[in-house]
Hints:
By secondary structure, the protein is an alpha/beta fold. It has 14 helices and ten strands. It has two domains: about 5-210 and about 300-320, Aldolase class I (TIM Barrel, Alpha-Beta Barrel); about 210-290, no CATH class. The chain has helices at about 5-10, 25-35, 50-60, 80-90, 105-115, 125-135, 155-165, 180-190, 200, 210-220, 240-255, 265, 270-275, 300-320, and strands at about 15, 40, 65-75, 95-100, 115-120, 140, 170-175, 195, 225-230, 235-240. An eight-stranded parallel β-sheet has the order 1-8-7-6-5-4-3-2. Helix 2 packs parallel to helix 3 (about 50-60). The chain is globular and about 55 Å long.
Amino acid sequence: MKTRITELFGIEHPILQGGMHYVGFAELAAAVSNAGGLGILTGLTQKTPAELAREIARCRERTDRPFGVNLTFLPTVTSPDYPGYISAILDGGVRIVETAGRNPEAHLLRLQGAGVTVIHKCTSVRHALKAEAIGCDAVSVDGFECGGHPGEDDVPNLILLPRAADELKIPFVASGGMADGRSLVAALALGADGMSMGTRFMATKEAPIHENVKRAIIGATELDTRLVMRPLRNTERVLKNAAVERLLEKEASLGRKIRFEDIIEEVAGMYPKIMRDGDTEAGVWSCGMVAGLIRDVPTCKELIDRIMTEAGALIRTRLGGML
């Protein structure tokens, strides 16, 4: 299948693996790329630029196909060493970067000047248009269904994707609610050039996370996620657990007076305990509503091959037969 996204990134299938904290390691990114998609390392999971350089090298040992690095620009007073992380990316020969969070404009000249293709994650049409205006090569349009941060507009992909298609000139992928061949065909029909999956790739054999996390995703339904940190305008979609219930109780009781410090026990530094150690109740962790469509733990190749087979059959047989 050829789309503007497969041409832009030099990949076989229009399927991306989004950056995920303590999930996007070399094992997963390389497996996705080897299966014909675009695997992405999560830059800030690596505590220093030197550690990111080593992770890039580990990924390079596992695949000779294109892969990218996610670099999230955080709204913090003390920023990570972004120039150092970019140096690690460039020195490692990575030529695809997925940016997220704050506006990446300050870093675009250096990245694109070195031949890097930049795709920016957006949760609204206005942010996607801004990314296009500052020169991003593509965008990932994340609907309200997505795990992690869906923004504050609450627009699901059935509306958001065609709106993006109406406005954007650059290629874009759909993110949020993507799991199978039906998702891909729907995304293409709504105007996207491919899809990005996060939660679905967590439930694969190569995802380097604890089996407890994978079992939790498989056991969940589309009704088992919650939105937290809404009063702080930092909304995150997470899987329901005891820590999430405690956090929501604090939000309800403190109301507008709530501060980040009030919920730090549930959200700060939890990902190693959850993803590595398997303590799925330790704190909040991102998960999309798409968990309701996930029922197995295939290899990345099995998953991507299945998606492409399903998509081809839908286009040729079911949809074609309706004409």
